[in-house]
Design goal:
By secondary structure, the chain is mostly beta strands. The protein contains 1 helix and 13 strands; from the N terminus they run ββαβββββββββββ. InterPro entries: RmlC-like_jellyroll, RmlC_Cupin_sf.
Protein backbone atom coordinates (compact mmCIF):
# COMPACT_ATOMS: atom_id res chain seq x y z
CA UNK A 1 0.00 0.00 0.00
CA UNK A 2 1.29 3.44 -0.93
CA UNK A 3 0.08 6.42 1.10
CA UNK A 4 -0.14 9.78 -0.61
CA UNK A 5 -0.35 13.30 0.68
CA UNK A 6 -3.36 15.30 -0.53
CA UNK A 7 -4.34 18.96 -0.26
CA UNK A 8 -7.95 19.91 0.42
CA UNK A 9 -7.39 23.24 -1.34
CA UNK A 10 -6.74 21.34 -4.58
CA UNK A 11 -9.03 18.34 -4.32
CA UNK A 12 -12.06 17.56 -2.21
CA UNK A 13 -12.97 14.18 -0.71
CA UNK A 14 -16.11 12.19 -1.46
CA UNK A 15 -17.26 9.79 1.27
CA UNK A 16 -19.40 7.00 -0.21
CA UNK A 17 -22.24 5.21 1.62
CA UNK A 18 -19.78 2.37 2.42
CA UNK A 19 -17.41 4.99 3.99
CA UNK A 20 -14.81 4.68 1.21
CA UNK A 21 -13.01 7.99 0.59
CA UNK A 22 -12.26 9.19 -2.94
CA UNK A 23 -10.21 12.34 -3.64
CA UNK A 24 -11.61 14.41 -6.52
CA UNK A 25 -9.57 17.18 -8.20
CA UNK A 26 -11.31 20.53 -8.55
CA UNK A 27 -12.40 21.05 -12.14
CA UNK A 28 -14.71 23.50 -13.91
CA UNK A 29 -17.49 20.89 -13.90
CA UNK A 30 -16.74 19.55 -10.41
CA UNK A 31 -20.29 19.49 -9.03
CA UNK A 32 -21.83 18.14 -12.26
CA UNK A 33 -19.19 15.40 -12.24
CA UNK A 34 -20.11 14.45 -8.67
CA UNK A 35 -23.72 13.91 -9.72
CA UNK A 36 -22.62 11.98 -12.82
CA UNK A 37 -19.99 9.81 -11.16
CA UNK A 38 -21.62 9.21 -7.77
CA UNK A 39 -25.28 8.33 -8.51
CA UNK A 40 -26.60 11.90 -8.12
CA UNK A 41 -24.59 12.02 -4.88
CA UNK A 42 -27.19 9.88 -3.09
CA UNK A 43 -26.06 9.05 0.46
CA UNK A 44 -22.62 10.58 -0.16
CA UNK A 45 -20.80 13.27 1.83
CA UNK A 46 -18.40 15.88 0.50
CA UNK A 47 -15.48 17.16 2.55
CA UNK A 48 -14.46 20.53 1.12
CA UNK A 49 -12.95 23.85 2.03
CA UNK A 50 -13.76 27.27 0.67
CA UNK A 51 -12.05 30.61 1.20
CA UNK A 52 -13.87 33.92 0.74
CA UNK A 53 -13.77 37.54 1.89
CA UNK A 54 -17.35 38.69 1.36
CA UNK A 55 -20.91 37.60 2.10
CA UNK A 56 -22.45 34.73 0.18
CA UNK A 57 -25.00 35.89 -2.40
CA UNK A 58 -27.34 32.94 -1.85
CA UNK A 59 -28.98 30.64 0.65
CA UNK A 60 -28.51 26.88 0.48
CA UNK A 61 -29.99 23.84 2.17
CA UNK A 62 -29.34 20.12 2.25
CA UNK A 63 -32.51 18.01 2.42
CA UNK A 64 -30.82 14.69 3.23
CA UNK A 65 -28.65 15.40 6.27
CA UNK A 66 -26.96 17.81 8.64
CA UNK A 67 -23.96 19.81 7.44
CA UNK A 68 -20.84 20.45 9.52
CA UNK A 69 -19.40 23.96 8.99
CA UNK A 70 -16.01 24.43 10.69
CA UNK A 71 -13.94 27.62 10.80
CA UNK A 72 -10.29 27.20 9.79
CA UNK A 73 -9.41 30.91 9.92
CA UNK A 74 -11.01 34.37 9.84
CA UNK A 75 -14.41 35.28 11.25
CA UNK A 76 -17.84 34.51 9.81
CA UNK A 77 -21.44 34.76 10.88
CA UNK A 78 -23.57 31.80 9.86
CA UNK A 79 -27.24 32.64 9.43
CA UNK A 80 -29.74 29.79 9.70
CA UNK A 81 -33.41 30.33 8.85
CA UNK A 82 -35.70 28.39 11.18
CA UNK A 83 -39.47 28.91 11.52
CA UNK A 84 -39.27 32.10 9.41
CA UNK A 85 -36.69 33.65 11.75
CA UNK A 86 -32.95 34.01 11.30
CA UNK A 87 -30.57 32.64 13.91
CA UNK A 88 -27.05 34.09 13.91
CA UNK A 89 -23.99 32.11 15.01
CA UNK A 90 -20.59 33.80 15.01
CA UNK A 91 -17.55 31.63 14.36
CA UNK A 92 -14.45 33.59 15.36
CA UNK A 93 -11.90 31.08 16.63
CA UNK A 94 -10.24 28.38 14.56
CA UNK A 95 -12.03 25.13 15.33
CA UNK A 96 -15.44 26.73 16.01
CA UNK A 97 -18.15 24.84 14.17
CA UNK A 98 -21.90 24.66 13.66
CA UNK A 99 -24.09 21.69 12.85
CA UNK A 100 -26.59 23.00 10.31
CA UNK A 101 -29.74 20.89 10.70
CA UNK A 102 -31.06 18.97 7.72
CA UNK A 103 -33.30 20.99 5.42
CA UNK A 104 -32.67 24.45 6.92
CA UNK A 105 -31.70 27.37 4.69
CA UNK A 106 -28.36 28.93 5.63
CA UNK A 107 -25.90 31.54 4.39
CA UNK A 108 -22.65 33.18 5.55
CA UNK A 109 -21.64 36.78 6.15
CA UNK A 110 -18.06 38.01 6.51
CA UNK A 111 -15.99 41.08 5.78
CA UNK A 112 -12.55 39.50 6.04
CA UNK A 113 -10.68 36.66 4.41
CA UNK A 114 -12.00 33.48 6.01
CA UNK A 115 -11.80 29.77 5.31
CA UNK A 116 -14.39 27.15 6.23
CA UNK A 117 -14.31 23.37 6.09
CA UNK A 118 -17.59 21.69 5.14
CA UNK A 119 -18.82 18.13 5.56
CA UNK A 120 -21.88 18.19 3.35
CA UNK A 121 -24.61 15.69 2.54
CA UNK A 122 -24.74 16.99 -1.01
CA UNK A 123 -27.64 15.03 -2.49
CA UNK A 124 -30.28 17.40 -3.94
CA UNK A 125 -28.72 20.53 -2.44
CA UNK A 126 -30.88 23.56 -3.17
CA UNK A 127 -29.99 27.24 -3.62
CA UNK A 128 -32.03 30.43 -3.64
CA UNK A 129 -31.02 34.08 -4.07
CA UNK A 130 -30.17 36.15 -1.03
CA UNK A 131 -32.46 39.12 -0.53
CA UNK A 132 -31.98 41.95 1.94
CA UNK A 133 -34.28 44.64 3.27
CA UNK A 134 -34.24 47.31 5.95
CA UNK A 135 -35.42 44.68 8.42
CA UNK A 136 -32.72 42.15 7.59
CA UNK A 137 -31.82 39.24 5.35
CA UNK A 138 -34.43 36.92 3.91
Amino acid sequence: MSLQKHNLNQEFVVIAPDDKATPRPLTADFYQALDRDFNLFKQHQLISTHQFDCDWNMWERHPYGDEVVLLLNGTVTLIIEHNHQNQFVELNQAGDYVLVPQGLWHTVKTNQLSQLLFITPGEATEHKPLQTSATGIY
